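Why do we bother with holo predictions? Because pocket geometry can differ from the apo form. Keep that in mind while you read this record for iron/sulfur cluster.
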Amino acid sequence: MTDDERQAALEAIAAEVRNCTRCRLHEGRTRAVPGEGSASTEVVFVGEGPGFNEDREGRPFVGRAGTLLATLLRSIGWRREEVFITNIVKCRPPENRDPAPDEIAACVPYLRRQLEVLEPALVVTLGRHSLGWFMPGARISQVHGTARPVDPSSGPRAALVFAMYHPAAALRTPEIERQSFADVASVPATLAAARARRSTGPAALEPAVPIQPEMTMTAPTPAQGARPTVTVTPAPDRDRPPAPAEPSATDAAADQLTLF
Ligand code: SF4
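The structure, written out:
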């Protein structure tokens, strides 16, 4: 598919989203927020849902959380225009409440189609609802800053998914903000791993990147000059119940505010 064809396909999906009435969230929206960014990107960031400003403008991550996301991207030398940014649900839940499971189920086919068009090498989840779709049962305080293979039924083929906190949670909690900058520093290295995995298969990672069964790879960190660690764990079994885990203080902070 050419970039023009990808752009046209994305615009067709966006047109459907703007007229969608599949779930109750259409009743309160000002504007649906399909997502935006480069049609030729290798990286897709997936947040949770539009907030107040996004609902007004019809664009993702345009409020304070969006400003922080742009700052996080700049810390690794990237611009938001170079990636694609979207959400699990495309319409704002009332009062920024969490999206309900049936709302996510109704909306996620749009995300799946966007990912099928973009075919990214790397999906970065922002927040626990996005994480829940790509890493079922995972707890964000335990998996942030780590990657694993994407279940192809989620949309992209042969991609890695990398977990990060939602920028809105980082705005509320300095420790989560610090962790977010540390996590995003690992994104370029994870993209390199995703490219290698896509071009030559998972086994080819091992000469360059030791993984058994957790993968550790190193790469220069533009923000800190350090060499971050990227951990890739096996893909989850969607039918397997989540492992019990005790909520941590950062889980609680991240759960307080997920939409922005
Ligand atoms: S949230 Fe998604 S499924 Fe629900 S009305 Fe909006 S676009 Fe349609």
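The pocket of iron/sulfur cluster is lined by residues 17, 20-23, 25-26, 32, 89-91, 103, 106-107 (CB under 6 Å).
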